[in-house]
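We were asked to recover a plausible sequence for a given structure. The inputs and outputs are reproduced exactly as logged, with field labels preserved.

PROBLEM: sequence recovery
POSITIONS: 95
GIVEN STRUCTURE:
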């Protein structure tokens, strides 16, 4: 089994009602998305946004990942605050 290397701390993990409902409808928990996020798999962002996240990791800036759920096609954002105190899962319309 490969260990995931965490690039940054997640802090307290929270989810909005919409994100939790979307994950439940998909039949997924949050751990898969969090593992992708913390290991630098930024999801379906453009190249410029991915490069910005790479820069943000070492500069303690806010980090945003975006994932589209495979069955329902719902997009979920995962945002880690600049001070690494919290990571939030939310739908873009809940931002």
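RECOVERED SEQUENCE:
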């Amino acid at each position: 089994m490969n260990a995931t290397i965490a690039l940054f701390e997640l802090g307290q993990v929270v989810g909005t009602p919409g994100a939790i409902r979307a994950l439940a409808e998909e039949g997924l928990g949050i751990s898969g998305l969090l593992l992708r996020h913390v290991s630098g798999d930024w999801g379906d962002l453009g190249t410029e946004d991915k490069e910005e996240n790479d820069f943000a990791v070492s500069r303690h800036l806010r980090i945003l990942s975006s994932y589209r759920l495979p069955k329902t096609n719902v997009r979920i954002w995962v945002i880690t605050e600049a001070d690494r105190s919290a990571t939030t899962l939310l739908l873009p319309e809940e931002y």
